[in-house]
């Protein structure tokens, strides 16, 4: 049982836009920034979005993040087949004194 | 670009101690701006942060594992290590090492992960 809540799966066709939600509480998302990681099949997670909406160098601007209250969202526009992956949200949790994760959302590009 | 590589036993018997080491290359383990962390990924619980260590040796552990975890660092060898005692099948997971920013706890570089199975 993960601390942050995500839908287990999402799907959309190529070229379309998909959003993935992440829900937490006051001790994590409500008082700290949100990070998103992308995990391609058989690989380690990779930093995708940090500080709610900041993309590291090399991440396409098709990926965007937002946060409101104790929830956050990841949006992917212009979906491509290579976007098929697991996506995890994370946030610092003041009660854990460390990061906590969502359970992950498996994105299928139909 | 920092690279991290885990090494571990692959198989550990129940009640024994799991030990995994991470070697840092192409970057300094002595960087003052980062912590070095362990994270595990299980089929049932997803990603779980285990704990972190600073170059000084100071540590913080996830309260859920604190009683069984020790993280240590050897800056001369550019390595940091994880020990998890009294393991059970529930500790079967892919163990990742990662660099964590001091601000906001962002994991910006990850190792490839090592699968550790707990079984007799």
Task: Name its key features.
heterodimer, A: 110 residues, mainly beta, six-stranded mixed β-sheet, 9 strands, globular, B: 120 residues, seven-stranded mixed β-sheet, four-stranded antiparallel β-sheet
Describe this protein's structure:
The complex is a heterodimer of chains A (110) and B (120). Chain A has 110 residues and is mainly beta. Chain A contains no helices and nine strands. In chain A, 0% of the residues lie in helices and 45% in strands. In chain A, the strands form two sheets. In chain A, strands 1, 3, 4, 7, 8 and 9 form a six-stranded mixed sheet that branches. In chain A, strands 2-6-5 form a three-stranded antiparallel sheet, with no helix packed on it. With 120 residues, chain B is mainly β. Helix content of chain B is 0%, strand content 54%. Chain B has no helices and eleven strands. In chain B, a hairpin with a 4-residue loop joins strand 7 (69-74) and strand 8 (79-84). The model of chain B has no long low-confidence stretch (mean pLDDT 95). The A-B interface holds A 1-2, 32-33, 35, 37, 43-47, 50-51, 56, 88, 90, 92, 96-104 and B 45-49, 51-52, 60, 62-63, 96, 100, 104-108, 110-113.
């Amino acid at each position: 049982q993960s601390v942050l809540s995500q839908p287990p799966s999402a799907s959309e066709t190529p070229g379309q836009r998909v959003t993935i939600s992440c829900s937490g509480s006051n001790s994590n998302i409500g008082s700290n920034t949100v990070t998103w990681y992308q995990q391609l099949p058989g690989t380690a997670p990779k930093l995708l979005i940090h500080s709610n909406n900041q993309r590291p160098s090399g991440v396409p601007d098709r990926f965007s993040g937002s946060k409101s209250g104790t929830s956050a969202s990841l949006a992917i526009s212009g979906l491509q087949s290579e976007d098929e992956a697991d996506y995890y949200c994370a946030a610092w949790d003041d009660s854990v004194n460390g990061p906590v994760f969502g359970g992950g959302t498996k994105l299928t590009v139909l | 670009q920092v690279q991290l590589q885990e090494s571990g036993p692959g198989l550990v018997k129940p009640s024994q101690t799991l030990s995994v080491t991470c070697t840092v290359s192409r970057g300094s383990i002595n960087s003052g701006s980062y912590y070095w962390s362990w994270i595990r990924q299980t089929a049932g619980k997803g990603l779980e942060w285990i704990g972190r260590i600073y170059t000084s040796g100071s540590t913080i552990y996830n309260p859920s594992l604190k009683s069984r975890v020790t993280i240590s660092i050897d800056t001369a060898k550019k390595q940091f290590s994880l020990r998890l005692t009294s393991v059970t099948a529930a500790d079967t997971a892919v163990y990742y090492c990662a660099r964590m920013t001091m601000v906001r706890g962002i994991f910006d570089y990850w190792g490839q992960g090592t699968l550790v199975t707990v079984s007799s």
